[in-house]
Structures are given as structure tokens and as C-alpha cells.
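hiii so my PI (J.) wants the whole complex modelled not just the main chain, which honestly fair. so below is everything: two entries, each one labled with what it is. i double checked the lines twice but i was tired so who knows lol
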Amino acid sequence: MSTLTATSPAPVVRRERQAHAPIPATRVLAVELRKMFDTRSGFWLVMSIGILALLATGATIAFAPEEAQTYGNFAAAIGFPMAVVLPMVAILSVTSEWSQRSGLTTFTLVPSRGRVIAAKAVGAIGIGVVSMLLALGIGALGNIVGTAISGAPTTWDVSVAEFSSIVLATVLGMVVGFTLGVVLRSSAAAIVGYFVYSLLLPTAFGMLAAFQDWFRDLQPWVDFQYNQTMLYDRVPDAENWAQLGVSALPWLALPLAVGLVMLHRSEVK
Amino acid sequence: MITADHLTKSYRGVTAVDDVSFTARPGRVTGFLGPNGAGKSTTMRILVGLTPPTSGSAEVLGGRYADLPNPGREVGVLLDASAQHAGRTGREILTVAARTMGLRSERVEEMLARVSLTGKEADRRVRGYSLGMRQRLGIATALLGDPDVLILDEPANGLDPAGIRWMRDLLREYADQGGTVLLSSHLLHEIEVVADDLVVIGNGRIVAQGTKAELLAGAGTVCAAADTRALASALSGAGITSKVSGSGALHADAEAAEVGRVAHAAGVPLTELRAADGAGLEEMFLQLTAESQRDRIHEGAAA
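here's the output for the full assembly
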């Protein structure tokens, strides 16, 4: 037990307060990008994009018949695993702050939640675009090597417009994941939500369109997932663009807006 | 300098923080004391903008925390040592914080040394850290930006006695250099040895605050005599309430000089006379927070 001595106010040594420059947005972005790679799960998630691309290319060379060894098929084989993995990167970039509670540090160091979330969005989409370019490169390599092995003519059947449309489809998938992350702020819930969106929903809407005539014409205007996956197959025309934009309102714009307001007001604990 | 001004936080009818106002001054360690669930952590989260208050306002260094251009350089915060991504290494967590604040990377190594985490430990993932190691890492994160203000929630949790001693010295030194330190604890002894000022909270309300000296002065006097009963009746005759407090001594609600005078006048020779120390403060703490205590005090004693 300590004996108490009367504490007179200690002589205060004045600390000179320095003026500090605001944290630039580029720094927030660099930090958020780093955080997508620096955990074991994050590292392997991003690594798996490259690994799956190589495996898919190898499988196409090994198993696809000669006439199917076209650039389009190589790109599709690589694009599919990416369409699954990349939205996970987007989801976890947001939800891990809550599920792992690292947000306590993140949002005390950068109190503006909007800046942090914007940096995460830019970073995740950046990873998406770079990954797609990587897929383009690995696919091209696969196409050259594959056809060289089989002796089939090397076919370049993907135009710039088609590739851009595929990149957009993938990025939109990431935006859906990101939105689920913002709205649910829980890794498990958002990942389940994403699979409901990408696997269950198309079946449900497909059935509805098959059996209900009134829905068949309506579907392109209300089913965002329908429009998003269509981008993998063809370059949209003017009407497709309009349908994509209209269906994005209830599926993306509205939930994202509501989610961001909720996130801004929520308690980080 | 930290100022809480009539902070209130309600959750659907439950008031977690109820009209809390206090000031933590530079050059002093302010202890934020209260039982578990009293509202300490919620108050601290409000101070740094993680929890929006229902009403009231808080200022850190003369403005809103959220308006600080680079908060980590001015306010060091440790709210929960376990709130870290389990898949990051200790060094990576410090590096991420240092990058955010715009500090050079050598600062990370300096802080690891400062909190006695070895290079090998720093390269392990936080998943495998003990609570004590997490606390050291959390303190390192708080100190990283060389801030003017420290806000630490239960920083001694999980530290071994040597670690607690180390942290106490660190906070003392920090305040002596002109820093403002606000630290919370539900353990009185932990706070008592380091704090200059105390803010005691129970059930979301502040139940006592002031300098430690002031609060101790109000804690009364411990006195003893061979004839305890004679001493007690002499005191009550003089209008001083007293009660038996362990080992036959009396705890009187008066200054030591007053008690001595009464005993002398009554001709009762004293065997002990001193200002109630921590024991008195503890009694005060238990009394003040009795309503919000989960266990009734006598039940706690029986257990």
C-alpha cells in the first residue's frame, strides 16, 4: 500500500504543439491497399487470383479440344474463378474492419469514415482491373502455348470492346460485394449474401421469367444480375446500357447510399 | 487537454452514459474509475468520435477529435488491445499505423523496443499473442505518433506486475513532460498509484471527481485505541460518525486532528491515528458505486 503524499499540481512543462498536415488521400489509399495484402487470408486471396488463372489456363490446354483453344475460351476459363474471388476481396476489405474489429484503430487514425471507405473502394476496384489485365496476359500466353502444343491455329477472338465489357462485369460484381460489405458490415453475412445474389437469385428470376410472361419482358429492367452477367457474353447496345443503369438503381445505388449513411452513423466498437 | 461536456448516450431507453462532464488536464494523469459496465469505454469512444453521443459534446486539444488533421500525431488511443486483425503481425500493425500517420519506418522499431516486444515476437501474428503482448502492442500504437494526449482504456489488463509497474512509470513520465493522460480502470489500486486526478463513474453517472488528495481528504481517518468502545462513544459524543474497519480500528468521518483532539479530551489513549489511505478510497469507491455493482458487497466478501 502506498503512503499518500499530498499532490500539489505538478509544474506543467509546456509541450509545443506542432501543426500537422492533413493526411492526404493518396496515403489513405496506399494504406488501405496494403491492408488488402498484409494478412494471411488477404495474401492468399489475392495470390489465388494468379494461381487460379494459371490452373485454368493449364486445364484449358490439357482438356479442351483443339477447336476450342481460342483466346475467348482461355479468357473465360480464367475469368470465371476471378468473378468469384474478386468480390470476396471487395467484401473483406470493408467487413474485416468490423469482424476483426481493426476499425477501432483505422477510424481513430482517420476519423473520416467516408475517406476510408472511398479508399477501400478505389483500392478494391484497382485490384480488380489489374487482375483482369493479368488474366488477359495469362490467357494470351495460354493461347499461344496451347495452340503451339496442339498445332491448332492461334485464334484471337476477343476485341477490346468485349474485353472492356468483361472487365466492367467483374468490377460490377465487386461493387455488389462491396455494397453488401457496407450494408451488412460482417464478413460471414456479406459472403453468404453474395452467393445468394450470384447463385440463388439467377435461378429464382430465371424460373419466374420462364413461367410468367409478364416478367420476361420486365426482367432486363429490374434484374441487375441478369444485366451484369450479360456483359460477359456481349458488348451492350444502347438499350442494354439503359437496362443496366435502371436495374442498378434498386440493386446498387439505393443500398449503397443507405449503407453508407448507416455506416457513417454507426458505432465502431 | 480533454473536455467532456454533459455527454449522454442512450441505447433504446438504457442510458449508458448519463450527463458526464470532466476535464483531463495537461501534465496530469487522470484516472477514470468505475466498475465494469459503468460507461467508461462508451465515454472514451465518444471522446474519439467512434460513438456518436445522444447529447453533449467532447473536445480534445480544444476542438473536435474528428477535426484533428492527423489525429495519431496528437492523440494516442488504446481502446481495446484485442481489437486487431488476428492475421497481421505485430510489426505490420505498427507499420500500417505509422504509414497512416506519415511516420518513417524506423519509428516502428523504436516503439517495439520501447514496449519490450522482441523482433521475433513482432513477426508473429497477433492471433498467437497473449493479452499482455497485445496490450504492449496497443500502447506502442498509441505512443507511435508522439502525441500530446493519451487515452487508454484498461491498459493494465493482462500485464504482469512488472508490466504494470513499467506502464505506471511510463504514464508518469509522460504526464511530467506535459502530456495529458486519461486512463480507465475498474481496479482502484491500479489507478490510485499513478493518477493525480480521479473521475469516478457508476451506472453511467459521475459519482465523484477531484484531485486524488481531495478525494482522500474526504475519506476520513483511521484511528484505534486499546478500548475501542470508549473511543467510539467519545467520537459519537463529539458528533463524529465512525465504524469498525478491519483489525479493530475505527474509520471516522473527520480529519485526523479533530479525532486526536476528541480522543485527548475524552482521555482515550490512541494506538493509531492516520488519514485513511487507499483503504478509505476503496471504501468510498465501493460505496459510490454500490448501486451499479453487480454483486452486493457483503456477498462479494462471503464468496
